[in-house]
Design a protein that fits this description.
Largest sheet: 7 strands, mixed
Number of strands: 11
Number of helices: 0
Shape: globular
Radius of gyration: 14 Å
Distance between the termini: 40 Å
Strand content: over 45%
Order of helices and strands: EEEEEEEEEEE
């Protein structure tokens, strides 16, 4: 079992920056992808960014150029999401997830952290 704990959410004004952190613990699969997703009220969950163990990252078009996902090289069970130039439409609950690449459909999720961007 893998436990994911997010931190770093909060209330910011449009144009400001925020850094989210996620720490995984437990029986972490050796080969995995860590990612951030978000869900705004009344909307479907959206994948924001993902990063594999080699550091290769992908981003949703909605955050491309404004966000950077990274992993702690020393402890690859930590992932970060740096968001800049935040917009009110970025308001959502941001959740960290870990996908086990060695097992079909095994994905672990954190509880999420609220990000609210005021205009």
């Amino acid at each position: 079992q893998v436990r994911l704990v997010e931190s770093g959410g909060g209330l910011v004004q449009a144009g400001e920056s925020l850094r989210l952190s996620c720490e995984a613990s437990g029986s972490i699969p050796r080969f995995n992808v860590m990612a951030w997703a978000r869900q705004a009220p009344g909307k479907q969950r959206e994948m924001v960014a993902s990063i594999n163990g080699a550091g290769s990252a992908r981003y949703a078009k909605s955050v491309l150029g404004r966000s950077t996902i990274s992993r702690d090289n020393a402890e690859k069970n930590r992932v970060y999401l740096q968001m800049t130039n935040l917009k009110p439409e970025d308001t959502a609950v941001y959740s960290c997830n870990l996908v086990n690449l060695q097992s079909t459909n095994e994905t672990f999720w954190g509880q999420g952290t609220q990000v609210t961007v005021s205009s």
